[in-house]
C-alpha cells in the first residue's frame, strides 16, 4: 500500500511538472512572438522566428521525456503487465466486442466499430490493457462476441493460467479464422 501511495504521489508530481513546463513554454513563446510582430526588420524577424521554432522543439522533446518518465513511474518493468489483441478473421467472424478478465476482475471491455475491425484485419494490434501485477500465478479470461458463420450471434471464451515473473509480462489475444471446421478460433498466447 505504501508503494502504491508513493507511485501515486510521483505520478501527481509528474503531472504537475508537465503542466508547469508547458506553461513556462507558453510564457516563453508569447513575448518572443510579440517581439517578432513588433520588429520591422526582416533579419531580426528571421532570427526571432528561428528562436521560436527552437523553443517549440525543446518543449516537444521535454513533453516526450516527461511522458516516458510518467510511464516508467506508473508501470515499472518489474510489475508491468500488458494484453494485446490481434485479428486474422473475415470469413467466419465479424468482431463486435471483447471483454477481458484478470483473476475474476473485469479490467477491459471494448466495442468495435467497422473501421477499427478493418484496421485490426489489416494487421493492427490493439492494446487492451496495461497495468501492474504482482509476481505469481494469475488467470486471464477473454470473452469474444460477434457475428459468426451463417450470420448467427457468436460468443467464445478463452482462458490462460500463467506465471508472472519479476520482468514485464505480455499476452496476446489471437482471434483467427480456422478453415478446418469453418469456425473462428480464440487463443491467449504469452509473449516471450
Write the layout of secondary structure elements.
Elements (H helix, E strand, L loop, with lengths): L1 H37 L3 H33 L5 E9 L5 E9 L2 E7 L2 H8 L3 E8 L3 E12 L5 E12 L4 E10 L4 E8 L2
Parallel strand pairs: 1-7
Antiparallel strand pairs: 1-4, 2-3, 2-5, 5-6, 7-8
Helix pairs in contact: 1-2
Describe the structure.
Helices cover 41% and strands 39% of the residues. With 192 residues, it is α+β, with helices and mostly antiparallel strands. The chain has 2 domains: 2-74; 80-190, Immunoglobulin-like, CATH 2.60.40. A 4-stranded mixed β-sheet has the order 4-1-7-8. The protein has a 4-stranded antiparallel β-sheet with strand order 3-2-5-6, with no helix packed on it. It is flat, with a radius of gyration of 24 Å.
Using the alpha-carbon principal axes, give the shape: flat
Strand order of the largest sheet: 4-1-7-8
Number of domains: 2
The CATH architecture designation of the largest domain is Sandwich
Task: Determine the fraction of residues in helical runs and give it as a percent range.
Answer: 40-55%
Q: Give the biggest sheet.
A: 4 strands, mixed
CATH top level class name of the largest domain: Mainly Beta
Overall radius of gyration: 24 Å
Mean pLDDT across every amino acid position: 80
Enumerate the spans where pLDDT stays under 50 for 5 or more consecutive residues.
none
Class by alpha and beta content: alpha+beta
Secondary-structure element order, N to C: HHEEEHEEEEE
Give the N-terminus to C-terminus distance in angstroms.
30 Å
Got a strand count?
8
Amino acid at each position: 500500500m505504501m508503494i502504491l501511495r508513493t507511485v501515486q504521489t510521483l505520478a501527481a508530481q509528474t503531472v504537475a511538472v508537465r503542466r508547469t513546463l508547458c506553461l513556462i513554454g507558453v510564457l516563453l513563446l508569447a513575448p518572443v512572438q510579440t517581439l517578432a510582430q513588433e520588429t520591422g526588420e526582416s533579419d531580426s524577424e528571421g532570427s526571432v522566428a528561428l528562436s521560436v521554432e527552437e523553443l517549440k522543439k525543446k518543449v516537444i522533446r521535454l513533453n516526450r521525456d516527461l511522458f516516458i518518465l510518467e510511464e516508467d513511474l506508473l508501470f515499472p518493468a518489474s510489475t508491468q503487465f500488458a494484453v494485446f489483441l490481434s485479428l486474422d478473421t473475415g470469413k467466419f467472424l465479424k468482431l463486435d466486442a471483447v471483454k477481458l478478465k484478470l483473476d475474476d476482475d473485469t479490467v477491459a471491455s471494448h466495442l468495435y466499430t467497422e473501421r477499427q475491425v478493418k484496421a485490426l484485419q489489416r494487421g493492427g494490434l490493439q492494446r487492451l490493457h496495461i497495468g501492474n501485477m504482482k509476481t505469481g500465478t494469475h488467470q486471464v479470461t477473454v470473452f469474444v462476441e460477434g457475428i459468426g458463420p451463417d450470420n448467427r450471434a457468436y460468443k467464445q471464451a478463452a482462458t490462460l493460467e500463467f506465471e508472472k515473473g519479476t520482468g514485464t509480462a505480455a499476452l496476446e489475444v489471437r482471434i483467427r479464422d480456422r478453415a478446418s471446421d469453418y469456425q473462428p478460433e480464440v487463443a491467449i498466447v504469452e509473449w516471450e
